[in-house]
[heparan sulfate]-glucosamine N-sulfotransferase (Oncorhynchus kisutch), 266 residues
Amino acid sequence: LQTLPPMQLADKYFQIFPEERDPLWQNPCHDKRHKDIWSKEKTCDRLPRFLVIGPQKTGTTALHSFLSLHPAITSSFPSLVTFEEIQFFSGPNYNNGIDWYMDFFPFPSNVSTDFMFEKSANYFDTEVAPKRAAALLSRAKILAVLINPADRAYSWYQVVDGSQLRSNPALVMEGIQRFLGVTPIFNYTQALTYDESKGFWCQRVEGARPKCLGKSKGRKYSDMTPESRAFLTEHYREHNMELLRLLNRLGQPLPAWLREELQSSS
Ligand code: A3P
């Protein structure tokens, strides 16, 4: 039997199977053949049970910080490179492989009750991300924050959004806990407090000022002009109709802003 040296063999292989040039990582423990050759020192449990996928500018940093307050929920370690987010499924980091990804997660203390997660806001709009995430985390739950795209566009420009996460985070966090099936149910009404000067909900700290997100999250600016709002409402109308159809198909409740937006533009 004759064979080529490894590098040449790899070149040859990818010439014959070019579609395999991009890897698709799967959970090594889901396939016996993979598990058998997976190092004994490694585990398959240093993977998230749910993902917060974005999109950007919807309040994902606030959601991340609220989730991290929960005693049974553990966030990934922050990346020093990409705004603290791991951004594994969405870009070149994917080529670093699953060991690199798992290093962002602690060894779970109690696998059945520990909910590890990561938040990368660009998973939402990266086309390869769903395929990659489904291959590695087939059972993970997905959280997407939906706000009025007109407000989101204005937020990119300078502004604040008007979603329920912002106005009533305790209620939203209760729904999220039920969706995740996480216990104990953490009381966010107690853990959070509205900070008048920030104008946002922040973490309550006993005997001290509330702990709010940094300056770049929850900025102060004037309201959108009616002309801009009318323009953006029109601009996003078809996309919002698509979202309505998608949520109906998935049997998901409609966010209040979507109802209002479609009523006002019909
Ligand atoms: P602005 O920066 O326009 O004020 P993300 O973290 O996904 O980039 O989203 C940032 C947005 O989160 C902020 O937009 C703000 O409107 C919103 N947000 C919701 N709840 C917040 C909170 N408790 N503190 C700060 N920002 C919050």
The longest helix spans residues 226-250. The pocket of adenosine-3'-5'-diphosphate is lined by residues 56-62, 121, 155, 159-161, 165-166, 200-201, 213, 217-219 (CB under 6 Å). The first strand starts at residue 50 and ends at 52.
